[in-house]
Amino acid sequence: MSTLAIVGAGPQLGRAIGRRFAVEGVDVALIARSRTTLQAVADELSDTGVRAEVFPADVTDRPALHAALTAAEERLGPIDILEYSPAPSPADLRRAPLVEATKVTVDSVLAQLDLYLLGGVAAVQHVLPGMLERGTGTIIVSSGAGSGPVIAPHVANVQIATGGMRNWILNLHAALSGTGVYAAHVAIAAYIGQGGHDSQPQTIADAYWRLHTGRTEAELVIQDLPDDYLDRGLADKFVEP
């Protein structure tokens, strides 16, 4: 029995990834800030027959993230698969607004680095030593495709952070060759749950399972953006009504 830890587990993609792996017999550790959201996802996974447990933590609080991952290991066993995909809430965006490329400042980048790059480094480095010791493991780190494959100047401060994360994971993929541990980056150019077939959480979750089982690609780009994505801006879930 393997264990998947989803860091940044939410009600759309996190739920779908959890279910896709759970139906294959993988136990699921759900990590994010909201216990209520996590518990709803865990309850939905109960029909799969695997263990789905919740471990609330904020990825920008490194001791709390470490404690959550440690608790998951104690309850469910070694983390064999890590999926890291945090996302800001509308409240986060009020505190640390998105900034267009010509207006980027040092301060506007720092919060994004904390969420995406530094949180990702902390999560990966928590599980990586054990994976290397066991000679097996999967690390999948997700971001918007503005991290590299797609140009998105209206969210430039985020892309500085996610671009750094993407670069690191691509290098990690190369560095892990021959170790039995696999790392990949997923660049999502889609309004998840709002577009066509390729934007649906279940479709994307299937792609994650293929990455985990195929273990060859350094990066998967999910491309399902409308032509007017620059005018449209953020996905609906990040915009308060």
TrEMBL record:
Q: Which InterPro entries is this protein grouped with?
A: NAD(P)-bd_dom_sf (IPR036291), SDR_fam (IPR002347)
User: Which Pfam families is this protein grouped with?
Assistant: adh_short
The record's section on Gene3D superfamilies has: NAD(P)-binding Rossmann-like Domain
Task: Please give the superkingdom of this protein's source.
Answer: Bacteria
**This protein's name:** SDR family NAD(P)-dependent oxidoreductase
Q: Which organism is it from?
A: Streptomyces anthocyanicus
Recite the lineage of the species: Bacteria, Bacillati, Actinomycetota, Actinomycetes, Kitasatosporales
